[in-house]
UniProtKB/TrEMBL annotation:
It comes from Esox lucius (Northern pike). PROSITE patterns: CNMP_BINDING_1 (PS00888), CNMP_BINDING_2 (PS00889), CNMP_BINDING_3 (PS50042). This is Cyclic nucleotide gated channel subunit beta 1. The chain crosses the membrane at residues 6-25, 90-114, 161-179. GO terms for biological process: retina homeostasis; visual perception. It comes from the Eukaryota.
Length: 384
């Protein structure tokens, strides 16, 4: 956190120079009466840069060819870190792209004042006439000429014509790229939401066409809404399947190993066996009151509670709660690991609230344990 705060100060110093140096070069804002304030800010920025080099050593990783790129890389590193913690990062990307657009207009405003001063303020109808706030009026010209709004006086001299042509070309190419980039950012950001809505709409259409009862339809809608809100996707396997096996393994270990490694059933098992098992786990969300499994059913899966709770219930109306099983626990392993006729469920298990469970298929577990005979013996012994 301290490092991110420091990056903010480096980024502000960088922005001071990037935005104010062109202004001081073009406009007559730096005078003998106020130069001490400008120098104070310059020395403050220099002090921040030197401190960044000498104390905050991570910046030295950006040394390239003997040049230490301090403030420039700090600016983008701060942006990346800020974007990473935002829930809707695409909004920040749109703001960042907009800032590039505004900076382009800022530079053009400075160049227009310089050109007007070169030609002579008020010497023609095209140049700045020297009235009002010089920066605001030049910025207004920059907006109209770069975005090609029109309505500007016609240039008369060769210098003015050349300047205007360059502005039009930059406006056509550079601004079309920026606006296109902004469109792509928003489109990419909303692609997931559009996919979710398409899945929801198609499912509702399917249920309606086959006259599925309203109660079932409402439960399906609830599952869609909750699953999307809690994990931002309907099936995380769709994301992971695109990655190479090594990357999938790394992600599965980072995300789920801390949960699975705490399960008592797997204590003492080969670490690599657990890694292989993480690759086979499937994450499923159960709605409140849904039965995960029922007594007497053929057991083909084992369950690990990732989030939420489940209850073992019984009685004539299946409303008597015998025990509540919480996150980090495992159940269903007896019917999965036991041999002979012990593969039927021995209890009714129902979700208490929303429950996110890892499911491990019997066939997948058998394929894994073939390579780990010692872990296989240990698990069968614990399952008895």
């Amino acid at each position: 956190m301290v490092y991110v705060v420091w990056l903010f100060f480096v980024m502000m110093a960088w922005n001071w120079n990037v935005w104010l140096i062109p202004v001081r070069w073009a406009f007559p804002y730096q005078t003998a009466e106020n130069i001490h304030w400008w120098l104070l800010m310059d020395y403050t920025c220099d002090l921040i840069y030197i401190t960044d080099i000498l104390i905050f050593q991570p910046r030295l990783q950006f040394v390239r060819g003997g040049d230490i790129v301090v403030s420039y890389m700090a600016f983008f590193e701060f942006n990346d870190r800020l974007e990473a913690v935002m829930k809707k990062a695409y909004i920040y990307r749109v703001i960042l792209t907009t800032s590039y657009l505004l900076y382009s207009l800022h530079i053009n405003a400075c160049l227009f004042y310089w050109g007007s001063d070169y030609e002579g303020l008020g010497s023609t109808k095209w140049v700045y006439d020297g009235k009002g706030n010089s920066y605001i009026r030049c910025y207004y010209f920059a907006v109209k000429t770069l975005i090609t709004i029109g309505g500007l006086p016609d240039p008369t001299t060769v210098f003015e014509i050349t300047f205007q042509l360059v502005n039009y070309f930059v406006g056509v190419f550079a601004f079309s790229i920026m606006i296109g980039q902004m469109r792509d950012v928003v489109g990419a950001a909303t692609a997931g939401q559009n996919y979710y809505r398409a899945c929801m709409d198609n499912t509702i259409k399917y249920m309606t066409s086959y006259h599925i009862p309203k109660e079932v339809q409402n439960r399906v809608k609830t599952w869609y809404d909750y699953t999307w809100q809690i994990q931002g996707m309907l099936d995380e396997q769709e994301l992971l399947v695109q990655l190479p096996d090594k990357m999938r393994m790394d992600m599965a270990v980072d995300v789920n190993y801390s949960i699975v490694s705490k399960v008592a059933l797997f204590q003492g098992c080969d670490r690599q066996m657990i890694f292989d098992m993480l690759m086979r786990l499937k994450s499923v969300v159960y709605l409140p009151g849904d039965f995960v499994c029922k007594k007497g059913e053929i057991g083909r899966e084992m369950y690990i509670i990732k989030q939420g709770e489940v209850q073992v219930v019984g009685g004539p109306d299946l409303k008597t709660v015998f025990v509540t099983i919480r996150a980090g626990s495992v159940f269903g392993e007896i019917s999965l690991l036991a041999g002979g006729g012990g593969n039927r469920r021995t209890a009714n298990v129902r979700a208490h609230g929303f429950a996110n469970l890892f499911i491990l298929d019997k066939r997948d577990l058998s394929d894994i344990l073939v390579h780990y005979p010692e872990s296989q013996k240990l698990l069968r012994k614990k399952a008895k």
